[in-house]
Amino acid sequence: SSGINAEYGYATKFLAFSCRELVRLNIAGCTQLTDTSVSYISGGCHYLSHLNLSNNLNITDKAVRFLRRGCKLLQRLNLQLCPKITYVAIQRVELGGCKVSHSIDINALKLGPMLPLSRTHKRPMSVGYSIFPIPSHG
Predict the structure, then answer these.
(1) Which of 24, 29, 38, 117 gives 20 to 30 Å between its CA and that of 54?
(2) pLDDT digits (tens, 9 = 90+) for 47-76
């Protein structure tokens, strides 16, 4: 399994640093995607405006931090079915003016503290959450 992760990491690194002018990238459902993979994307693809990372169980708030720092032009970020991404991380991205799609498991909902909105924040805030119940097995 670590061999697959290493290969995927090299592929992501190659993509990010060979295609620096990418504007849209859809890597939804890539099960080997990690925070490190996202760091390569944020380090090489500074022109991204739309990024789909949905359906990924591995990426965390760390990946979102990389994107905030490296992809300043990001307008839409899809994090549907990325359960390790917290609400606080999403709020921070949205404060930068990016519309984020994210699903929340209401049965395991653990919201962190709400971030205060800046009075000087001039960009409109938009939220694209899908809240859905997860069936209980028992």
Answers:
(1) 117
(2) 999 999 999 999 999 999 999 999 999 999
Residues 6+ apart with CB under 8 A from 111: 87
In the block, tokens 């921070």 appear at 92
Q: Is 84 helix (H, G, I), strand (E, B) or coil?
A: coil
Give every residue of the chain whose pLDDT is below 50, as ranges: 1-4, 106-138
Q: Given this model, what pLDDT does residue 4 score?
A: 46
Structure tokens at 113: 């503290």
Task: Report whether 100 contacts 77 (CB < 8 A).
Answer: yes
φ/ψ (deg, to 5) at 31: -70, -15
Alpha-carbon distance of 122 to 119, in angstroms, equals: 8
pTM given for the model:
0.71
- Count of CB atoms situated within 10 Å of the CB of 47: 15
- H or E element, residue 24: strand 24-26
